[in-house]
Structure formats: structure tokens, C-alpha cells
Amino acid sequence: MSKLKVAFYNLSGCSGCLLSIINCEDSLLDIFNAANVVSFLMAQSNNREEEQDLAFLDGSVTTDEQEEFLLHLRPRTKKVVALGTCACYGGVQAMENAKGTFERRFEKVYGKTPFTIVKAFESKPVDAVIPVDYYIPGCPIDGDLFLYNYARLLKELPVDMPKTPVCRECKWQENECLLLKNQLCLGPVTAGGCKARCPSHNLPCIGCFGPADEANLTSEFNLLKEKGYNFAEIERKLRLFGGTKFINSFRELWKSPAAKNQKTQLRKG
Fold first, then answer.
1. Below-70 pLDDT ranges, the chain
2. Shortest CA distance to 195 belongs to which of 164, 156, 154, 239?
3. Distance separating alpha carbons of residues 183 and 176, to the nearest angstrom
4. Does residue 225 contact residue 194 with C-beta atoms inside 8 Å?
5. Residues 10, 126 contacting (CB under 8 angstroms)
6. pTM over 0.85, yes/no
């Protein structure tokens, strides 16, 4: 049986997810020997662009060049996997999306600098440009979860990610709930898979694995409001890694009576 052709690509981001794969040192040879790796710029030099079975994409889409690359990649790739929170949700670079225009924010940082090499735009997840078959979130991804799902994908099985939020993994670690200590923890609305690393070190969850399935934002918002946090504090925390998925949810949440009261109070304050 011939090996599947696999490729790894990086778009906009820190490349931390691809680095996490290379950091699987004891399994690195197995990763390469189990498949025919046709492209992995960070790990090999003999890369080639051709039809392939699997493409792992790290990073968000922020330029017209990347958009064009993806549109050419999709027809010659059987399965596309979004790797990491940037590829899945837009990442940290999407946290200011929908707050005014991208051009105004760009000008605030860089001045009236014209685009000369590529045209940049507001950060987007990969599925905003092409269909994505599977998602492996995390900032960065968890090495064990990647290896487990890499083996499944090479056997042409679907990705299998945790379906429960960080809160459950936190309880398995027998951690004391940080929300009960009035800390702004996003464990109830963040996807599991991180083994509750931050709460296990007495640090509140910042949501780096992205939104959990069926995350109840309204409940989390009301709970944090009861703890004394205002809408702006909660929104900023959720935006950090929640990317476009949380931001789209905010549009509805922002219209809620509780949020309107918060906005009124903030204006008066």
C-alpha cells in the first residue's frame, strides 16, 4: 500500500504549531516515515508542489497572495486540516476584527504606507477562503493530540478532538475552580485538549484552544458580570483567541439587554 502524500504549510502566524510537530522529537522519524511528506519548509529542503492527500495549514489568511495560494491548493488536495487557533479561528491577529476598518487600524500602526509586495487585509481563518475538512485547534497545538490524529488521518479516519470544555479537564486534575476565586477564567467556554495546563498552575484559562462546542457565551457573560467584570473586560478576554467565531457571537450578545445596560453604565462612567 502506497503512503499518503502529506504537506505542511504556514500562512500568517508564529509557526508555533509546525514547531510543535518538529518538537515531537521521539516521534519525528515516525511522522516522516509513515507518510510521503512532499512539503514541509521548516523541516526539509526537497519540497515539491503536486497533488496530495493531506494538507496541514498553520496560520491565518492575511494577504491576497495567501488567498490565491489556498485557491490553487484546494483542488489538488483531498483533505485540508486547519492546524492551530490561527488557522481555525483567525487567531490573536483577528482579535480586533469588526472594530472599525482594517485600513484605519493599519494606518494607525504603520502610517500611510502603501502595499508594495502583497496586499494585506483583516485576518481570516482558512475556512473563510476554502472548505476545511478537519480542525485541530490550540495555541500552539498539543503534540499528543496531533500525533493521535495524524495516525488516524493516515488510516483515512476522521479527526477526533475533545468535545468538552477545559472545565472538565480541570476537574480531572482536581484543581480548585478559579471562577470561585472570582478570577476571569474562560474554562467553561473553551475547547478542551490542553489538559488544563493554565488552571493547573493557578492561572485562569485565556481560551487559546478556541470556542468549545455549544459554548454558552450568555451564561459565561452573566457569570463573569456577577463577579464584577464589565462587558469590555469580558469581551477583550474572549476576543484574544476566540477569533471570528466569538466575534460573530458578540454581535448577538452585544444586543442583549444585559450588554445594553453595561454599555449605558460605561458611557455614564
1. 249-269
2. 164
3. 12
4. no
5. no
6. yes
